[in-house]
Amino acid sequence: MTTAPAPTRLWTPSRVLVTRSAAALPHGRQVLERVQAAGVPDVQVLAGDRLPNLRGDGDRAAFMAAKDTLAVVVGAPSKRRLQPIPPSADWRFDLAEGCPAHCQYCYLAGSLTGPPITRVFADLPDVLASLDGYVGRGEVTSGTAERGHEGTTFEASCYTDPLAIEHLTGGLATAITHFGTHDWPGPVQLRATTKFDDVESLLELPHRGRTRLRFSVNAASVARRFEGATSPVPARVAALGRVAEAGYPVGLTIAPIMPVEDWRTEYGELLDSVAAVLPHHADLTVECITHRFTPNSKATLTDWYPRTKLEMDEELRTTKRGKFGAVKHVYPKDVMTELRGWFTDAVERRLPGARFLYWT
Ligand code: SF4
């Protein structure tokens, strides 16, 4: 008999700031009520819409204080114009920006600027109502063939981990319910990825199979060393099994893949643990993302986590240039070929029936 992993302790921020406009909106008020009920010691409704300067003096204490702060704001007007987000989905929209966890490779380090507070958007229902205009306008260039039947895909976890804050916001449940019950002009799918396991509040929602919940997982030693304040991987895998049982399409985001010592054994055990919880009817996709860093993300991460043992050595990597000349440091070709060959084969053998969406 297997024992269910203990649930992860839910995040209680030490400070919550709610702007005046956010407090006037129903979703903003819902978050306010939830953080008060959760016993957050310092909840402030601001007199205006500007957040105070949270940059501090750039020291570690300021970083930790920002990481432990939740702000409830109204999104800037530019947020209403969605951006394409290949290969993950056709379009991205944001429930929030920022995350309270402490992954030492965090991909937000290179993309979000300013102090690392978590901002929740109180105008979420308006954003959801505006998505109709994007249906049928998919622009994904990678993975399209594998999931074309799923319609236009919307990614909600580009800049946050929605499940890390769901107990305080209810935003993911609102989005799932909207996708499941709205009369859409064409087929759609909501996509979200998480390193957390608190799925209880999602199980009974009227999702109608229109939300794919993906769990970001990794080799045990990578998660143990580098993924602070997230749910343990076995708990994420158990959560994947629960939402698959509840009829959700599910996914594995295996990321960031690292060729640690004994990586074949560790990643093999990971895939086997997923196979063990999947119901036979599960609709499972797999996305594989190898570790990479940019000059900007390396600078930010070494500032945030100065004692990190994460390998970010340019000498051990190959440099790739993106569309606009942006530099990325990825594993050399021979390492990539070996990893890719192993994962393609291992997923096929250990998770037959899973759809492999992309490798990067
Ligand atoms: Fe960053 Fe995701 Fe880790 Fe949060 S869970 S710190 S968003 S990598």
Condensed summary:
The protein has 12 helices and 17 strands.
Could you give a short account of the major beta sheet?
8 strands, mixed
Integer average pLDDT:
93
Please state the CA-atom Rg, rounded to the nearest Å: 20 Å
User: N-to-C SSE series?
Assistant: EHHEHEEEEEEHHEHHEEHEHEHEHEEHE
Overall body shape: globular
Provide the structure class. Answer: alpha/beta
Treating each run of at least 4 consecutive H or I residues as one helix, how many helices? 12
Poorly predicted runs are: 141-145
Bound molecules: iron/sulfur cluster
Helix content: 25-40%
Widest sheet: strand ordering = 4-5-9-10-11-13-14-17
- Percentage of β-strand residues: 15-25%
Number of strands: 17
Query: End-to-end distance, in Å?
Result: 37 Å
Structure description:
With 360 residues, the chain is of the alpha/beta class. It contains twelve helices and 17 strands. The chain has helices at 20-23, 26-37, 60-67, 124-129, 144-147, 162-169, 171-181, 220-226, 233-245, 263-277, 295-304, 333-350; strands spanning 15-18, 42-45, 69-73, 83-85, 89-92, 96-97, 102-103, 118-121, 152-155, 188-194, 211-217, 227-228, 250-257, 284-290, 318-321, 327-330, 355-359. The strands form four sheets. Strands 4-5-9-10-11-13-14-17 form an eight-stranded mixed beta sheet. Strand 13, helix 10 and strand 14 (284-290) form a beta-alpha-beta unit. Helix 10 runs parallel beside helix 12 (333-350). 40% of the residues are buried. The protein binds iron/sulfur cluster. Iron/sulfur cluster is lined by residues 99, 101, 103, 106-108, 161, 195, 230. Residues 99, 101, 103, 106-108, 161, 195, 230 line the site of iron/sulfur cluster (SF4). InterPro entries: SPL.
